[in-house]
Amino acid sequence: MPEPQRRFSLDSWAVMLALAAALLVRIGILKTVPW
Amino acid sequence: MASSVALPRANATSFSNRFFGLIPGILLLLAVGYAGKFIEQSMAHYGKAHHLVLPNIEYVLWAILLGLAISNTIGVPQIFRAGVATYEFWLKAGIVLLGARFLLGDVLRLGGLSLVLVFIELALALTFMTYLGRGFKLSPKLVTLLAVGSSVCGVSAIIATQGAIDADEEDASYAIAAILALGAISLFLFPVVGHALHMSDHAYGLWAGLAVDNTAEATAAGALYSDAAGKVAVVAKTCRNALIGFIVLGYAIYWAQRGQAAEVKDKGAFLWQKFPKFVLGFLLISLLATIGVFTKPQLTALGNLSRWAFLLTFAGVGLRTNLRELGKQGARPFVVGAVGEVAIALITLGLVFGADKWFHL
């Protein structure tokens, strides 16, 4: 069976994850991220 | 009717299977990366407590070395492989988040200079690699793959080009093996050369971003030198990545005119499909940081999130590099790649020294 066409590329998912993380930081849910 | 009910359920099962199948490998990336960080901190504490001057070896190197040790001794068990392969995903997410540590003006200034150097590098490197490959009598499409891999952006460029020019799987695997092996070597050689030449963080980062093939290796080679060099390497490498679509399109048209690849009908759609979207994400976060959307502690938090994403990436670079497998590939593609890499490293070093003289990097 052929592989179904993906709606978003891996690249786009990575961007969305990063933007979602930035949003969580901006609205204060992720206040500090230790390193 | 039955199929319309059964299909979504099957899709949901396969999605959840795939998702949960990634978790062991991602945990392995985290464990290896964190072990690297732990070793770095432990060495620093030990040196301080015992008044010893120990070399400051960054977690980047430890994570890569631990990954290499695992993949080349016991190997990476099947259960971890899918998750380990996500390291490129973390790399791209990390690059987008790194945008928070740049003002857009700096990105445009550094990116503008990088783009000029990338154009020169691409023209020289593609020409040199093409003639070198022909001289070694490699198949024409393997020459194209090696040229694109070594001058644009490593494995992603090879995979994108392979599809566009209908190249053989075998040629692509030769080119990928050669580029991966050379990427692993440059990762360790570049910082040594940079220190020997007393290069500034900016100059070295620019050089690593222009010359090291894969984005993961270029980021690691920069971070091994210094944090600042790592940031510059990412910007320079991102400029190279941004041009991938144009280079692949050029080669696709070239091979289609010779009747050896499918014709590209919609060039705009082709360019958009090949364009690395994380470049846009990086610019967007940088723009938001510049206009003051984030407070200072929030920018620090985003920078740290980017570091965690890179930590997973560096562990993945070591874990996916199997030196024995790479050694099994043919010698000629490796030799062509190696000669080409040395030439590209020297050309870009000359470009960076020239830019340093003119623009005081």
Number of strands of chain A: 0
| Alpha-carbon distance between the two ends of chain B | 66 Å
- Beta-strand percent range of chain B: under 5%
Q: Name the helix and strand elements of chain A from N-terminus to C-terminus, one letter apiece.
A: H
In short:
The complex is a heterodimer of chains A (35) and B (361). Chain A is mainly α. Chain A contains one helix and no strands.
Descriptive report:
The complex is a heterodimer of chains A (35) and B (361). Chain A is mostly helical. Chain A contains one helix and no strands. The longest helix of chain A has 17 residues. Chain A starts with 9 loop residues before the first helix and ends in a 9-residue tail after the last helix. The model of chain A has no long low-confidence stretch (mean pLDDT 84). Chain B is mainly α and 361 residues long. Chain B has one domain. Chain B is built from 16 helices and no strands. Chain B starts with a helix and ends with a helix. The relative contact order of chain B is 0.17. At the A-B interface, helix 1 of A face helix 4, helix 13 and helix 14 of B.
